[in-house]
Amino acid sequence: MIKPPNLLRLRNFEASKALGQKLGQNLPKGSVLLLQGDLGAGKTTLVQGIGEGLGITDPIVSPTFTLINEYHEGRLPLYHLDLYRLEPDAVAKLYLEQYWEEEERLPGITAIEWPEKLPYLPLNYLEIQLSYIEETGRQVILQPVGDFYLDLSTIS
């Protein structure tokens, strides 16, 4: 298990994307990522890098208005959810647990922006907290929860 918290400093947009690429190359099937951070913190940029690391060539765009974008090419499928525009009671009616519950789980990587709107969280996930720091770029904290495991030496 990773020793929390794991803090990374990313100096620019390219470093954020590179972190995502390394995650995409190393995340195991069934991984759930909960991406937290203010608007402009780099959540979608990180997911774009994850898609590149998975070998997805389609443009990855924020699903703010569509709620869920699915990309089925690459090493594993990528399910990108953005709950920003929804109220928590509306999120509950979407039955998003199909992306992470054992019996229903889809065999890919699920990245969820604005996870605080979920009615409940998965048992195992990687919490990724992104924050923008004007002088130094972005700060990222990787926090495994439950039985989630990722060898950080593969991405640092």
TrEMBL record:
Q: What is its main location?
A: cytoplasm
Taxonomic placement: Bacteria, Bacillati, Cyanobacteriota, Cyanophyceae, Oscillatoriophycideae
Family, per entry: Belongs to the TsaE family.
Give the matching SUPFAM superfamilies: P-loop containing nucleoside triphosphate hydrolases
Cellular localization per UniProt: Cytoplasm
Q: Which organism is it from?
A: Crocosphaera chwakensis CCY0110
The UniProt GO MF terms for this protein read: ATP binding; metal ion binding
Q: What's this protein's name? A: tRNA threonylcarbamoyladenosine biosynthesis protein TsaE
Mind listing the UniProt keywords for this protein, alphabetically? ATP-binding, Cytoplasm, Magnesium, Metal-binding, Nucleotide-binding, tRNA processing
Q: What biological processes does GO assign it?
A: tRNA threonylcarbamoyladenosine modification
Gene3D superfamilies to which the protein is assigned, alphabetical? P-loop containing nucleotide triphosphate hydrolases (3.40.50.300)
Q: InterPro entries per the record?
A: P-loop_NTPase (IPR027417), T6A_TsaE (IPR003442)
Query: NCBIfam families annotated for this entry?
Result: T6A_YjeE
Q: Name one GO cellular component term.
A: cytoplasm
Any Pfam family the entry gives: TsaE
